[in-house]
Specification:
The chain is an alpha/beta fold. The chain is built from 13 helices and 14 strands. The radius of gyration is 19 Å and the shape is globular.
């Protein structure tokens, strides 16, 4: 399948403020923003642990690094963070997706996954004449992103929004330009709920999807949020914290689960997390939960460390703070949900492996 992308110009991603990213110019999202970095956490004392990676949790990681004075964090996307960890330019990395086989082979050592928080991948829209959040089913969202649904007044969108006047306008599809764990979790969900999407795009998730739709690509979750905000008749996918920061959280769709529609709230994130199954490697799947009140598009994000890696004592201090009660207690105020007690306990016990 040929990728069709209009990509935003390169911009620096700041976790705690919206990036002013445009949606013009043509290029390939595989190469965009790979080197786009911005240290979001300010200065840290000598010997602090250096981290980089996912933009999804960057608001929390930036705040925690500043509070604890144990780390710095550059938000540049999960894939870029994993590359930095591989070549040892950082001590730890942030990722919303597990390493693929190639990434694991390149590192060549055990990678420890430390869940740090739960977050919603919202699906904000900016539709002409529509002033309230839309109701969308998972298959309808899949149809938009795989190119089957191209107009806002499509019957599959209209069916879940009775009484709403939808324009006969083309849909602008805003996506990530960089290698992204948010993209991974989003596409994994769409492949699970839509056989048509899975047939076109493949089963499982991808950090660099080959979208079926014509898309406007921007680096980082803040870039996608700005693309939606700046383009009428658009749709995108972005974490709740960045949607709130951009002022578009009130346009985030409620997503259909068994005929009901659930909005992305911290309570709905927590409901999905409460039903999660604990795994030996702590890679936790909370997407498409059938738990009562659960938002279906919830992702776990991880802080990663390599066995025998450098500066392990400092990394251990960082992760200890991230899992502590003060840091976890701040998450709801940022649009995230804290880890369920059993997952936090398992992650805390795993800290003993960082030597």
């Amino acid at each position: 399948m040929t990728r069709r992308i209009m990509m935003a110009g390169g911009v620096l991603i700041a976790a705690a403020s919206l990036v002013a990213a445009g949606c013009g110019g043509s290029s390939s999202s595989d190469t965009a923003a790979a080197d786009t970095t911005s240290t979001t956490s300010g200065e840290a004392p000598e010997g602090a642990a250096i981290g980089s990676g996912a933009t999804f949790p960057a608001m929390a990681y930036s705040r925690w690094c500043q509070e604890s004075k144990t780390c710095t964090y550059a938000a540049k996307g999960s894939g870029a963070g994993i590359k930095d960890l591989t070549v040892k330019t950082v001590d730890w990395a942030g990722s919303d997706a597990p390493l693929d086989a190639g990434e694991q082979k390149a590192i060549g050592a055990t990678v420890y996954y430390f869940p740090t928080l739960l977050g919603a991948i919202t699906v904000p829209t900016n539709v002409e004449g529509v002033t309230k959040p839309l109701n969308l089913t998972g298959p309808a969202i899949a149809g938009i992103f795989d190119g089957e649904i191209t107009k806002w007044n499509d019957k599959d969108i209209a069916a879940s929004n009775p009484g709403v006047t939808l324009p006969d306008k083309a849909i602008t599809v805003c996506v990530r330009a960089d290698s992204s764990g948010t993209s991974y979790n989003f596409t994994a969900y769409l492949a699970e709920v839509s056989q048509g999407f899975a047939d076109k795009m493949g089963t499982g998730g991808s950090k660099t999807p080959n979208w079926g739709a014509t898309v406007s690509a921007s680096p980082g979750n803040p870039g996608v949020a700005n693309c939606v905000k700046s383009n009428q008749n658009s749709i995108g996918y972005v974490d709740l914290a960045d949607a709130t920061q951009a002022g578009i959280a009130d346009k985030a769709a409620a997503i259909g689960v068994d005929g009901a529609y659930v909005a992305p709230t911290t309570a709905a994130i927590a409901a999905a997390g409460a039903a999660a199954t604990l795994t030996d490697n702590l890679v936790i799947d909370v997407s498409n939960s059938t738990a009562k009140g659960a938002y279906p598009l919830v992702a776990t994000t991880y802080a990663l460390a390599v066995e025998g890696g450098k500066n392990m004592a400092a990394v251990k201090k960082v992760f200890t703070y991230f899992l502590g009660s003060k840091a976890q207690g701040e998450l709801a105020g940022m649009g995230f949900a804290p880890l369920p007690a059993n997952i936090n306990k398992a992650a805390t016990e795993q800290l003993a492996k960082l030597k």
